[in-house]
Design brief:
By secondary structure, the chain is of the alpha/beta class. It has three domains: about 70 residues, Winged helix-like DNA-binding domain superfamily/Winged helix DNA-binding domain (Arc Repressor Mutant, subunit A, Orthogonal Bundle), CATH 1.10.10.10; about 130 residues, 2-Layer Sandwich (Nucleotidyltransferase, domain 5); about 130 residues, ATPase, nucleotide binding domain (Nucleotidyltransferase, domain 5), CATH 3.30.420. It is built from eleven helices and 15 strands. The strands form four sheets. Strands 6-5-4-7-10 form a five-stranded mixed sheet, with helices on both faces. Strand 4 and strand 5 form a beta hairpin. Helix 2 crosses helix 3 and helix 7 packs across helix 11.
Length: about 350
């Protein structure tokens, strides 16, 4: 089936089938039809179109009837995306396949005796040479950049970042000098981590979800309203770290002194109470960079304080999830974005595969 024919099918149907296949190691056309509720004929036609576009692979042939193509389908994991992570000065470059599985990671050791921009150029040179030598660019479906702030397309720079040197770098222009054949997609690493984390929550696209990142250098987050991020002016729209506590200090400074789950819960209780009152989220995700052990202990302690001090009923509280931060969450979220964009380009025939 041509991309023109594929474009005439409802996008939601195509995306639904893609998501079903992405969530399974391998699956038949009949199983796809059963899960999506589409007819076997429609599901088969869409699957065949995705197969022809190189998005899927047929794992093994099975006997077909009436000339219909048959077989077990899976994502084409020969396809991959590049991820450049600038959230820390020790830059990171990852390659993930279409199934969101990491292929490799390269990390830069920042040289303090050189300028930030020189470090960046050194790393871009290294990953460019490595990529040209080891990857077929025809199989690359995207190049994404995870940022410690909000990308401003007008200035091609990063706003609201705790790495001030990034404010003066024309980001896509610089990266384009090394990877001129690829379009660069920059996005806030916090938004990407949120996207990765919420994707495993049932019916997340129908819920309002508050995400907090509590890191060594920053405390920020984002609010998702039925699957869409709350967008603000340049500068992060959910800079939770600058909330002021009754003692006059900021949430960020108070959290940086915390060591135990109970200390984190005590500091977070007031700000989380305010967020519940104002935003009424269905789910709150708290992701900790420093608290490797005990993340799951923060949630019950926080719920206890919210109940006893702020008089929230337990059965009225949102689901509060505590988890440990991993860089790969933002990488996974970024590749989820890149593959959705790639799928849209194929369906609407905006660019060549």
């Amino acid at each position: 089936m041509s991309s023109f024919q594929l474009a005439n099918i409802r996008y939601e149907s195509v995306k639904s089938i893609f998501n079903v296949i992405a969530g399974a190691e391998q699956i038949s056309r009949a199983e796809i039809a059963g899960i999506t509720g589409l007819s076997l004929v429609t599901a088969g036609k869409i699957a065949d179109a995705l197969l022809d576009a190189g998005i899927l692979k047929q794992q093994k042939e099975i006997k077909a009837t009436a000339g219909r193509r048959a077989g077990i389908l899976a994502l084409n994991t020969d396809k991959f995306a590049f991820v450049l992570d600038l959230s820390k000065k020790n830059f990171c470059f990852s390659v993930l396949n279409l199934g969101l599985v990491p292929i490799e990671t390269i990390t830069h050791t920042y040289k303090n005796d050189r300028l930030y921009e020189d470090n960046l150029h050194d790393f871009l040179t290294e990953i460019m040479e490595h990529s040209y030598e080891n990857y077929a660019f025809d199989d690359c479906f995207g190049f994404g950049v995870s940022l410690p702030g909000i990308y401003n397309p007008e200035s091609d720079s990063v706003n609201g970042t705790y790495i001030p040197e990034l404010k003066n770098i024309r980001l896509c222009e610089v990266i384009g000098e090394y990877f001129p054949m690829l379009s660069v997609y920059p996005e806030s690493g916090v938004n990407l981590s949120a996207l990765s984390n919420v994707s495993v929550i049932p019916d997340y696209a129908r819920k309002n979800i508050l995400y907090w990142f509590i890191g060594a250098d920053s405390t920020d987050g984002t609010f998702m309203i039925r699957g869409d991020f709350l967008d603000g002016t340049p500068g992060h729209p959910c800079d939770f770290g600058n909330m002021v506590l009754p003692a006059g200090n900021t949430v960020r400074s108070a959290l940086q002194r915390c060591k135990s789950p109970s200390e984190y819960a005590a500091v977070l209780s007031g700000p989380v109470h305010n967020c519940i009152q104002i935003l009424a989220p269905h789910v709150i995700i708290l992701e900790f960079e420093e608290l490797a052990d005990g993340c799951s202990s923060v949630s019950p302690e926080l719920c206890r304080i919210l109940h006893e001090k702020y008089h929230h009923r337990y059965d009225h509280l949102p689901d509060i999830l505590g988890m440990h931060y991993e860089n790969r969450q933002s990488h996974r979220g970024l590749v989820m974005r890149l593959r959705s964009q790639w799928l849209e380009r194929i369906i609407f025939d905006k660019n060549n595969v």
